[in-house]
Amino acid sequence: MSKQSRTEMEELDPRVRVNNFAEVAQGYTPEQAVKEAKRCLQCADPKCMEGCPVQIDIPDFIELIAEEKFDAAAEKIKEKNNLPAICGRVCPQEDQCELKCVLESTGEPIAIGRLERFAANYGEDEVTKPVQDKGKVAVVGAGPAGLTAAADLAKMGYKVTVFESFHEAGGVLKYGIPEFRLPKEVVQEEIDQIKKLGVEIQLNKVVGKIKSVDELMEQEGYQAVFVGTGAGLPKFLGLEGENLNGVYSANEFLTRVNLMKAYKFPEYKTPVYVGNKVAVIGGGNVAMDAARTALRLGAEESMIVYRRSREQMPAREEEIEHAEEEGIQFQLLRNPTKILGNEDGFVTGLECIKMELGEPDDSGRRRPIAIEGSEFEMDADMVIMAIGQNPNPILLDDSPEIETTDWGTIKTDEVGQTTKEGVFAGGDIVTGAATVIEAMGAGKDAAEAIDEYIQSKDDN
Amino acid sequence: MYEIVEKNKLAPEIFHFEVKAPEIAAKAQAGHFLILRAVEKAERIPLTIADYDREQGTIDIVVQEVGYSSQQICDFEEGEAFLDVVAPLGNPIETEDYDRVICVAGGLGAAPLYPKVKSLVDHGAEVTTILGAQRAEKLIWEDRFADLSEDLYIATDDGSRGTEGFVTNVLEELLSEDNDYDAVIAIGPMIMMQAVSDLTAEYDLKTIVSLNTLMVDGTGMCGGCRVTVGEETKFACVDGPAFDGHEVDFEEQRRRKKFYEEHEEEIEEHHVGGEGCRVQAK
Ligand SMILES: Cc1cc2nc3c(=O)[nH]c(=O)nc-3n(C[C@H](O)[C@H](O)[C@H](O)COP(=O)(O)OP(=O)(O)OC[C@H]3O[C@@H](n4cnc5c(N)ncnc54)[C@H](O)[C@@H]3O)c2cc1C
Ligand SMILES: Cc1cc2nc3c(=O)[nH]c(=O)nc-3n(C[C@H](O)[C@H](O)[C@H](O)COP(=O)(O)OP(=O)(O)OC[C@H]3O[C@@H](n4cnc5c(N)ncnc54)[C@H](O)[C@@H]3O)c2cc1C
Ligand code: SF4
Ligand code: SF4
Ligand code: FES
């Protein structure tokens, strides 16, 4: 059976999808899911599980799909993962569970992510709220890390309140990752499930401004605080011309389009500027998302400007392929040196320098080196900076006892305990910009550590 | 939801709202602002917390109708409620170490200036206020400033009240007679804050301005509020909104504010023409 190849998943035609925000990957039908599930070898020592940061019981849920017990498969996943519809879509499976699958060597690992996404459509909608009498915990930030910690703590019997600075919960899942990759309805449904567990989400609350961590613990009676505030601070390159009109951070561009729904302007009132020729600086998922979004908003040309080569791009392979299919151009081994503008202050182009690859650096990737004197200009009337994000400092500026590293991330031990007693942290605020599932894994570990911490205190 | 407990018209196109928000009132300080989203499909609009009452649990905002979103806010009535308010944002302004200060407001700038004057006076400073407006009926809160200020000067563009001309004319006159002040605080249109800063630079007099950049989140996440201050890029929402007026690149700010001009027209057309919703087409 293992000789069978992976079951393909339908995708929208690139020529059609560049004109809308509909989800590109269509998901498995029940027949396709069962077919794929039957390929799984049900290994006695399932390597796939080692690759999953939240330790989903992969062979068991796949077997349930093979037996057409879809509801049970969903329940199985939800024992470990509160957000299966999201992970099934955006997890970098090729680097995690699917990389470890024994069939990986054949080039046809089990499509674990697609199966997970399929199963997420099933299962009980009715969640029973657990008895919550073990104490009160506050969670700061309603991204994947915070939501996971909150859900797990609620299941363990804690009364959990999440404080979120935006007017919607979800973090990057709502404001960053575009609709065509992760429909916001899917995200909201999963958040609603978490609310049914008894988790209270207070929106429009910036911790560090409206209240401090100390106030939460000392005045409002929270026995522990989990900080999952993410890496929301956009980086810029410090180039001449970076403040011209038409230069966006990817965060701003994507927030306007996703969270504020500028793609439905003027029905929704937040505007977004889109050029005819858009240059996105960077090579990660964020850059792909920005370039593909610009194309959907009507840009005639949308290109990725990246200083290394294609092999070294940090974006998921699937995203790069989708971008290529849609007609995104790749300007590789190019690094911007200046942004050019006109007298009204709008962008007109980019000055770039050509790069070549030298010796591998700390990350193991070959270091890009500028080729002296190779500067050239190219036209662009919009530039999006997608060169990474730094940790969000608002809460930390207000709580100096929580120590940070030189990169501004929070220092924690392996279970998420920070240098301040009773305060735990996880997700991008600890690791720097990483992945949804790692943030969830950190939220899970911290939930357990918080339980242990509170119980040990209660015992004394 | 954030209920409007009182609404007053202060001047043509300028409204004052008192909004129930006890948690925010408890934390608000002079210099803080909020971001308001009136209804589901609205923009997030930054507005200064113009006053607050911790006991009543209310905060005050003063809004001028300049475009679609501010008009939408001004259409709200007592008893109705705004969907989202996030605050306090930005940094409170330093008001402790001053003895003599000149506070200058242009137009609507009087509202954001008010809490600063109040805080300065609370901390023992002697404040001279200059209020400017296009014409007399556009002046706001003159009585409140009269109560707090050592001296109050008025300037209108058409001379319908006070000195005819700009606030800078009055300021120049004051400074040429006596420039023994610790600082000038100026709030109003960019062009006015720039003119004040240029003038005070000649007297080497510390000048604080409060920038009303475009904003989205107000928490440092988007960079849309970028402003060059002393050759460095700052984010007005988390590094400001108050900055040293002698260091701000006002030209850049004026250009940045024109970014969405075409879109503003499109919103107006959409609503006036009643064409229904068109997906953003370029
Ligand atoms: C455009 C984009 C595409 C991506 N694509 C992928 C992908 O395909 N696959 C993948 O695995 N990962 C992807 N990532 C990365 C992934 O989204 C993040 O690693 C993950 O969301 C981190 O989760 P988090 O909970 O730590 O933080 P976030 O998701 O950033 O959530 C933090 C939350 O905290 C809130 N907050 C911040 N400060 C405060 C405060 N002081 N008080 C209250 N609330 C606060 C924020 O508003 C936010 O809602 C992508 C990221 C981006 C930006
Ligand atoms: C920290 C801060 C505090 C503020 N406090 C107040 C306040 O207390 N009361 C108040 O009425 N407004 C205040 N503003 C300005 C207010 O946010 C804008 O007037 C509002 O966003 C305009 O939205 P609109 O859709 O109605 O107008 P638009 O349709 O966006 O614009 C209409 C016209 O106003 C100009 N404009 C756009 N944005 C701004 C802006 N941010 N400031 C000034 N002019 C602008 C445009 O260039 C255009 O000419 C503040 C802004 C900031 C950043
Ligand atoms: S959560 Fe992610 S890593 Fe874990 S099984 Fe699902 S797709 Fe794989
Ligand atoms: S390693 Fe691959 S084949 Fe083995 S149980 Fe896991 S998914 Fe199935
Ligand atoms: S408003 Fe987004 S960073 Fe200031």
TrEMBL record, chain A:
Q: What positions does the domain FAD/NAD(P)-binding occupy?
A: 136-443
Gene3D superfamilies from the entry?
Answer: Alpha-helical ferredoxin (1.10.1060.10), FAD/NAD(P)-binding domain (3.50.50.60)
MF annotations from Gene Ontology: glutamate synthase (NADH) activity; glutamate synthase (NADPH) activity; iron-sulfur cluster binding
Source taxon at top rank? Bacteria
Start and end residues of each Dihydroprymidine dehydrogenase domain: 17-123
A single Pfam family it belongs to is Pyr_redox_2
Q: Which SUPFAM superfamilies match?
A: alpha-helical ferredoxin, Nucleotide-binding domain
InterPro entries, sorted: DPD_II, FAD/NAD-bd_sf, FAD/NAD-binding_dom, Helical_ferredxn, SudA-like
What EC number(s) does this enzyme carry?
1.4.1.13, 1.4.1.14
Its keywords, alphabetically, are:
Oxidoreductase
Question: How would you classify this enzyme at the top EC level?
Answer: oxidoreductase
Under the heading PANTHER family, the entry gives:
GLUTAMATE SYNTHASE [NADPH] SMALL CHAIN, GLUTAMATE SYNTHASE [NADPH] SMALL CHAIN-RELATED
User: Which NCBIfam families does the annotation name?
Assistant: gltA
Q: What is this protein called?
A: Glutamate synthase (NADPH/NADH) small chain
Query: What is the scientific name of the source organism?
Result: Halanaerobacter jeridensis
From TrEMBL, chain B:
Q: Which cofactor does it need?
A: [2Fe-2S] cluster; FAD
- Stated EC number for the protein is 1.18.1.2
* Cofactor binding note: Binds 1 [2Fe-2S] cluster per subunit. Binds 1 FAD per subunit.
Keywords in UniProt for this one? 2Fe-2S, FAD, Flavoprotein, Iron, Iron-sulfur, Metal-binding, Oxidoreductase
A GO biological process held by the record: pyrimidine nucleotide biosynthetic process
CDD domains assigned:
DHOD_e_trans_like1
Q: Which domain of life is it from?
A: Bacteria
Q: Which GO terms describe its molecular function?
A: 2 iron, 2 sulfur cluster binding; ferredoxin-NADP+ reductase activity; flavin adenine dinucleotide binding; metal ion binding
* Residues bound to [2Fe-2S] cluster: 222, 225, 237
Report the residue ranges that make up the FAD-binding FR-type domain in this protein.
Answer: 1-95
- Enumerate the residues binding FAD: 62-64
At the top of the EC hierarchy, this enzyme's class is oxidoreductase
* Coiled-coil regions, chain positions: none
Keyword set includes Lipoprotein: no
Query: Which PANTHER family does the UniProt entry name for this protein?
Result: DIHYDROOROTATE DEHYDROGENASE B (NAD(+)), ELECTRON TRANSFER SUBUNIT, DIHYDROOROTATE DEHYDROGENASE B (NAD(+)), ELECTRON TRANSFER SUBUNIT-RELATED
Query: What's the protein name?
Result: Ferredoxin--NADP+ reductase
This chain's source organism reads: Halanaerobacter jeridensis
Could you read off the lineage of the organism from its UniProt record? Bacteria, Bacillati, Bacillota, Clostridia, Halanaerobiales
